[in-house]
Each structure stands twice: as C-alpha cells, then as structure tokens.
TrEMBL record:
Residues 33-177 form the PapC N-terminal domain. Residues 767-822 form the PapC-like C-terminal domain. It is found in: Cell outer membrane. This is Outer membrane usher protein. SUPFAM superfamilies: FimD N-terminal domain-like (SSF141729). The lineage of its organism: Bacteria, Pseudomonadati, Pseudomonadota, Gammaproteobacteria, Pseudomonadales.
Amino acid sequence: MLNASKIKNTLRPSLFGGLISVAGSALAAGDIEFNTDVLDLIDRTNIDLSQFARSGFILPGTYSMVVQINQQSLSEQSIAFYPPDNDPKGSEACLSAGLVEQLGLKASVAAELVWWKGGECLDIRGLPGMQVNGDLATATLNINLPQAYLEYSAINWDPPSRWDEGVPGLLIDYNMTAQSSHQKNDRVRNDLSGNGTLGANAGAWRLRADWQGRVDKDRERADRRSRLEWSRYYAYRAIPALKARLVVGENYLYSDLFDSFRFTGAALNSDESQLPPNLRGYAPEVVGVAKTNARVIISQQGRVLYETLVAAGPFRIQDLNDAVSGRLDVRVEEQDGSVHNFQIDTAGVPYLTRPGHVRYKLATGRPSDLQYGGDGDVFGSGEFSWGVSNGWSLFGGGITDNNYRALTVGAGRDLLVFGAVSVDVTQARANVWHETLSGKSYRLQYSKNFEQYDSQITFAGYRFSEKNYLSMSEYLDARHYGRNGELAGRYKYDGYTENWKPIGGSKALYTATINKHFRDLGATVYASYNKQTYWERPATQRWNLSVSRYFNVGTVKNMNLSLNLHRTQEYNYKDNGIALTVSLPLGRSGTLSMDANRAAGDNRFATRYADRLDERNSYQLSAGNNAASGYLSHIGDQADIDVAASKQEGGYTTLGVSARGGGTLTPYGGALHRTNSTGGTRLMVDTGGVPDVPVRGYGTPTRSNAFGKAVISDIGSYQRMAASVDLERLPSNVEATQSVTQLTLTEGAIGYRSLAVIAGEKAMAVVRLPDGSSPPFGATVKNLKQQDTGIVNDGGNVYLSGIQPGAEMTVSWGGSEQCIVTLPVLLPTDGLTDALQLGCRMVARDQSLPEPDALTGTRNDTEKTSS
C-alpha cells in the first residue's frame, strides 16, 4: 500500500519548463509520454517521472487528503484508491461509509445509496451529477454534489453530520479585575473581583463549574470582606438527532413562556444554536455611558454573567450569550467611587417554528437559591411550538409543583414582509400566604427586519398581568421569605437596590429595541425602552436613544457626531443622562473627541484622544473637570489586559487592571490563551512542535507557544470556522505546507487540528549515492514527519527546506523509500551559501524503514543499510 501524499512544487523552473513540452498524447490508460530531449540533463537515462506520468490518474493506494465538498473543506483523512471492478487498470477513490456520513445527504437519498467493493465504497453512479476527483499536487479530494441531495446548508453552517465533538481535555477560564483607590487623607481601598469556569470534556459531555468572588479591603477601617462561591455545577451535551441540548445539575430555567429561576435537576431543550443562522434568535445587549473609566458587571439573580473594564464614554456590550433571558442587573462602578445601577428586560423573538417541525423545552428538579440552597418542592415544566403551516405556529406549556401551577397557550403568525407576531395567555394558580391566588397574564410580541430600509425592530413586546397573578419566581420568593417570617412573606430584600420590596404585583411590561441605518446620511439610530408598572407601587423604566452620524467639514473627513440620551427610574431613584460627543480623525489611526455629558445632576466636560500603538495595543487619554485619566488595552497571546488610571482634584487617585484569559489542556498538549467567553468552544492548533507560528482564527492572530500549540477561543458553536497560518508574519526559517483548516464544533468542544509546518534553514544540496551516482531526476525528499522538503533535479541537486542539524531525510523513487541522508550536526555559521554535500545510504530491500525515535527525531541504529 502506498503512503504517498501531496507533491510540492520545489523544483527549479528548468524542470517544469521542460515538462510543459510534451510529445505524444495520453495513452489508453491515461499515460503521458514526456519528451525528455527538451530537458537540460547530463544523464537522460537516470530519470524517474512516474509520479507525473498520468493525467488525473492516481495509483491505487492510500493517501492523506483534505476533503472538499462543494468547495467546503473537511478535515484531512485517509482516502483509499482501488481499481474499479470494470477497469482493472483504472483507479477510483473509495468513499467509505464514514466519509459519506459527512456529506450531509438527505435521509431519503442516503437510504437509496449503492455500494461496491463488498459494500466498502460508495458507487457514485447511483447519484447522477456527482463528481469525485483526487489531486495529489494539492492533496485534495474534490467532491461535487448537486444541492438537491443535501440537507439545508448556509455559508457558515454545516449539517449535523459534519459537526465535530472535539477531543478530551481540561480548561480553566478567568476574568479578573483589581482596583485600588487612594484619597489625600491616606485612606486606601483595594478590591479584587472575578469570575470564571473550570471544565472537563469527555466525548460529547461537557462538565463545568462556574465560580465568582470578590475581596474588599479598606486600610483605614482595617476591615476585609471576602466572598468566593461556586455559582453552579453542571454537565451538558448536544443531542444532534433531536436538535436539542441536555443539561443536568445546577441550572437556570431558560424559557420562552415563563420567567427564569435557578434549580437543580435536568433540562432537555431544543437548541436554537443548532439551527441555521437565519432561524435563530438574538442575544441581548447592554448600552450605557461611563462618566470615567469604569467596571461594568452584568448579573442575574446574583450570578455574574459578564464583567469588564470600559473606558470613559458610551459603551455597548453585545457579546452576551443568546441563551440569556429574563431581567438582568447592570452595575457600573466608576473610578471616582460613584456607582449606578439599572436593569434591562431581555426577550426573545416571537415563538415561531418552521412548518412541520416541533421545538420543545422540558425541565424537572428542585428550585434552589444561590445563597440558600434548596428552596422549594420538586417541579416539572414543559413547553412546545409546532409549525402548523407555512405561516402559523401554535405553542403552549405548563409548569407545576405541589402548590403552584401555570398553563400557557398561544399562537404565532409569520406576516412575511410585515414581520412576525405572536400572542399568548397564561393562567397561574398559587397557594401561598395561607390563601389561593389566581390570575392571568397576557403577552404580545412583534419583530421585523426592514431590509429595504436598513432598519430592524429587534423586539417589541407587551405583557399585562392581573393583580393576583404570580409568576413561578415570585411564588418561590413568597415561600422563602414567608418561612423566614419577614413581613409576613409579602416583601423580599432586594440586593440590587438594598431595599425591601413587595413580592408580585406586576401590572404591565413594555419592551422594545429598534435599529435604523441611514446609509445616504451616514447615520445610525439605536433605541431601547423598558417599562414595568405595578398595581400598588411606582413604575420603573429605562429608555436609551443613541444617534451617530459621520460627516465631512472642509478637508476634514469622517468626523463623527454622536448623541446618547437615557433615563432611568427605579423606585425612589431617578437619573436622566445626556452625552454629546464630537470626534475627528487624527493621523493614521488616532481620534480626538470632545465630550459633554450630564448624569445624576452632574455636568462633565472632557477631551479624549484614542489611538493604536499597533495591532495589539491601543490607548485612550482623557482630561476634563479637574481630572485626568488613561486607558490602555493589550491583546496578548495568553491573556487580554486592560489598565485604567485616573487622578482627580483633591488627591483622589485610582488604578485598575483587568485580565481575561484561560488555559486548555488536551492529550496533545496545552496552552494558555486569551478568551472572553468562559467555558466556551475553542480550537487547539498544533504546528508540529514549531514555536512562534502566527495562527489566525478571526481578529488578531495568536502565536504557537514553545511546544507548538496555539488555542483560538470564543468560537461560535455549530458554525463553520477556519483557522490558518498567517503567511505574511511567518518567521524566515519556517514554511507552512498546509496553511488552512476548517471545521464545525459543537457547543463547548475543544477542537484539535494540526497544520503541516516545516521549521529549519533552506539551502541547495547535492545528494550522492554510495557508488557516487545520483538519485534519479524527480526523486522526492521527505523529513521524518513525511513532509516534502525537496525534489531532486539534474545531477543530484535539490533545494531543501526544513534543514535541522543532525536530522535525517529519506529519498524516494520508484514508489518506495530508497536511501537516507543525514544532515550535518554543525551547520555553517555564516549562512548556508554553499551547497551541502550529502551522502545517501541505501535501505536494504528486505528491511522497511523503522519509526523515528519520539524524543530525538532520529531513527534507531539497528536499521539495515547497505553500501
């Protein structure tokens, strides 16, 4: 069986200049007859062009090839070529059952496939229009299939048959922020906060443990408050056959019909992320304005979801998980010591389902509180959405325990050019406070993407609840505080506002998010609105309006004017804010901005200058209101680091540092890396032990560590992604023979791919056999990793790459390895300017080449050679 792979073009131009002139034509078996008279050779009898002699013909054997399906790359795999039953002199690629499964054929098509070679290989003649071609020069197997045979596919989405569960491994991700503040009276306050995830992958299972903590220390008061808690332990896996996600352990109820609460148990949900991109929902986003460099913490029911350090000015956080639902708490801690909070209500697009499909969510377990543990009786919940026709969907669900039950029914309608709308009603009944409360809640949702107007109503919703309506989470609060005797259980302590507030009593909830682009004017408008009214207490609301426009003034191009308005009303707290920013470009990448903003009755004016030092480092300087601040952001291979410092009138100074990163360990090695989404999907790229190789996934490339490993994190689940070697930044002594790989990973997977990289010097060499002759013209030279490093030219001349001191390479012709060359232990210190003289010792015909030593990279001395 042959072990050939790709043929690399490392010959001098004279070789292919001669091969272009071909006398004769293809023979019956596909042979090509070369006119060797045009080659400038001393010895025309010592030529081996067998590997070039057949046009499109591949000798029977097994080859390592990258498979491309309709120009979409799969992983490299072994492809066998066999003579067809009706053509003993021919050769045809064998598409095994495992490879055919990756094609993503429709079930009806897969059921009628025809096989040959005893059922081992697919007979492509059973699929009219299918073409399969192998190309040794690029080590590629090209498969072209009519789209009618395939499942639904999109540009960056693969069907489940091509999903990769990744490799076993361990991970630890973190997000840490440290801040120190100092006042003139020598009062110093230090605090450290963070959150992260520990995890392990085994097959399709993902085991995770989330943690969060904070340490505050005040030197003047000599007190220290610290808290470290594991917010949840859980395991999950994808079930592609059901388009679902199974979660066991501590979890939150992610529902399209009911509000969210924490519980310990199991949940089986239709996973929207496993659907094609245009059938998914959207992730919530948080918009606000920071008066100074600030720390932004987004949490839900006490669990930290996101924490980051932002520069002064408007901020917009858009990388929250799309599984997040319900009410989110946002805390903005300014470096001047002030803190302001607000809440946003997230919501999903109307609950619609494709015709003939059913989406569902099932959960059971015991409600639990992050601080108090078990906090209720065993419950069960279920919901579904059924695509009745091309426009209508019916949905409903229920949730119940011993003393609470709720039932929801609704319908959704795809209005085509007018968007999508859904309406539902929920009836709830609760036994609490020694009485039975019963009430209804009504909801209306709408979304629309007006592509022709470059605008989108991401979500618009309205919910009305009767006075005696209690949601499940409100019922659980009533049970908990009732048992503890706090105000007869009708009030709860809200850690968000640090006040006692009534339980239940919600009346109406209004939510809306709108985007609009005015391309002709170069303007963008973003607006969001949240309002909650109650039966017996004041309403809460928050609205935000952002307008941005680019314009030119004389010779100054691409100036920007942005206006941000917001209003927050939370019980006894009100905050109206406005921020106006004018910015103009300076230099190649710098931006000068002038700000005027008012928030919480405080007027502020500032001038900011932001610029990039390089691709990895950027900074911002700000001055105004008797204060100055600086912000530096660094994108590293092992972590992202942000540093913020400020000094204000009165001797108040602050310094903050945040770091986001992680570590991943697999059976193939480990690496530290940057990350934003803790516990998420990632890809380990192996560069074959070659360090400092720039690898790009998206954004700023990372570099392989000392062991030749690099990790690309924050990869989208169930979306095709590509990783590649950044050829423009390769070190001069490194060459990539395979620079791109593609794959689609399931949620939380640790993917693994190796890219063929050769490290070492490059030089001309002359190869001589023991009798003084030369290997034949066209013989190939490979290193011990079976990577092509050169092709022999006239007189044994060869241009070698990947030269390592003392390493060994094999020379092959006639379809097998014939001899071994050993490179000098000491290479010339003044550069490889002269041709290396290399002797090639022959391999005995009765002895195959031994495997190289795993540590030294050289072969065992026991191999048989002949002189």
